[in-house]
Amino acid sequence: GAAEVWKEFDKSKVYMVDLESGLHYLLRVELASHQTLEGEELKTFKDFVTVIAKLFPGRPSVVKLLETLLEWLVSLPLERIPYDAILDLVNNKMRISGMFLSDRLQWVGCQGSRPELRGYPCSLWTLFHTLTVQAAHRPDALANTGLEEDPLAVLQTMRRYIGTFFGCQECGRHFEEMAKESLSQVRSLDQAVLWLWSKHNQVNSRLTGALSEDSRFPKAQWPTPDLCPACHEERDGLHVWNEDRVLSFLKRHYAGPNISPKYAS
Ligand code: FAD
Fold first, then answer.
1. SS3 of residue 74 by DSSP
2. 102 within a domain of the structure (yes/no)
3. Would 8 be classed as within a structural domain?
4. Is residue 1 domain-resident?
5. Which residue's C-alpha comes closest to atom 8 of ligand 1?
6. Band of residue 1 on the pLDDT scale cut at 50, 70, 90
7. pLDDT value at position 189?
8. In the structure, which protein residues have their CB atom closer than 6 angstroms to any atom of ligand 1?
9. How far apart are CA 207 and CA 93, in angstroms?
10. Average pLDDT over the chain, rounded to whole?
């Protein structure tokens, strides 16, 4: 197709279009490779929808759509749900009542210099950082869902989502290895925010120079000093992170007021 026009953006912000396009891709494209959901897959999908319905800091029409999807999933007595039924709900039934998830994919902070670069995987990281930060800001948000009281709820849901549905299976394997190794050490909602940050940096460093790297967006340890100078320190001539500063930075960067509505239709 025709090359899209480059959209100027500010890398110190998070863009709602990226988050919404990520949800669009996830619900309408990624899930479509599963004809029916049942058993563990269905449980994983339900927990994922619970987490986004309760924590996604989105526009009212999108939050309403997620809440309706959740109510529907919870109330269904079925043990297997055909994917077509989920798609029909997301595409048709909800649209009638004004709940709406954009029907086109648009990347802004996640745009790549070629269509096969960045995009969805970038939005998925962005979504999960946003969700861990929301959970830390609103510890009661998951009350009465069966996921409350567990500081790992968001990360475990992400882990299961990535392992079950994420199209990049190699990514899923790598993520599972990291989770197995250290996820159980996470004891608080703040530690969950930092765990995801540190694992994402581990992935960044592994992927430096890989084919999937967009030369316009070279892999780097994040946040770079221009975004957060105070996050970086030197001890005995070596670079070290100031994790308190990193935590405050993440809790501001991925919070509602830093999510820009620019380009959102
Ligand atoms: P991304 O790494 O996607 O990051 C998106 C945005 O998040 C960045 O632009 C930046 O603003 C912010 N960010 C960057 N680092 C951090 C951090 N440490 N903490 C918080 N925010 C940060 N690709 C592979 O080729 N092999 C893999 O094994 C692999 N594993 C993956 C595992 C998971 C769970 C996911 C979601 C993706 C994986 N990918 C893997 C894809 C890869 O990590 C990138 O998403 C992809 O290469 C696009 O990179 P990007 O430049 O858009 O930045």
1. helix
2. yes
3. no
4. no
5. 122
6. very low
7. 97
8. 110, 118, 121-122, 124-126, 129, 162, 168, 170-171, 174-175, 197, 200-201, 203-204, 207, 210, 212, 214, 217, 222
9. 41
10. 94
Question: How large is the greatest C-alpha to C-alpha distance in the chain, in angstroms?
Answer: 62
What is the number of the ligand 1 atom nearest to the C-alpha of 250?
Answer: 20
Question: Measuring CA to CA, which residue among 168, 252, 251 is closest to residue 203?
Answer: 168
**Contact indicator for 263, 10 with CB cutoff of 8 Å:** no
- Contact, 157 vs 52, CB < 8 A? no
Cα–Cα nearest to 182, from 137, 222, 152: 152
Ligand 1: residue whose CA is nearest its atom 27: 171
Going 35 to 115 to 222 to 177, the CA torsion angle's sign is positive
Q: Which domain holds residue 23?
A: 14-209+219-260
CA angle 62, 22, 67 (to 5 degrees): 30
Residue 217 has pLDDT above 90, yes or no: yes
> Which pLDDT belongs to residue 141?
96
The residues near 79 (Cβ < 8 Å, ≥ 6 apart) are 38, 39, 42
According to DSSP, the residues that pair with 80 across neighbouring strands are 38
What are the backbone angles phi and psi of residue 210, rounded to the nearest 5°?
-75, 165
**Number of domains within the chain:** 1
Taking alpha carbons only, the member of 87, 10, 20 closest to residue 57 is: 20
CATH number at residue 223: 1.20.120.310
pLDDT above 80 (res 84): yes
At 3 the pLDDT is 61
Q: Tokens standing for 219? A: 């892999």
Residue 239 lies in a domain: yes
Cβ count near 43 (within 10 Å): 13
Residue 2 has pLDDT above 60, yes or no: no
Instruction: Give 37's strand partners.
Output: 81
Question: In 3D, which of 113, 133, 127 has the Cα closest to residue 22?
Answer: 127
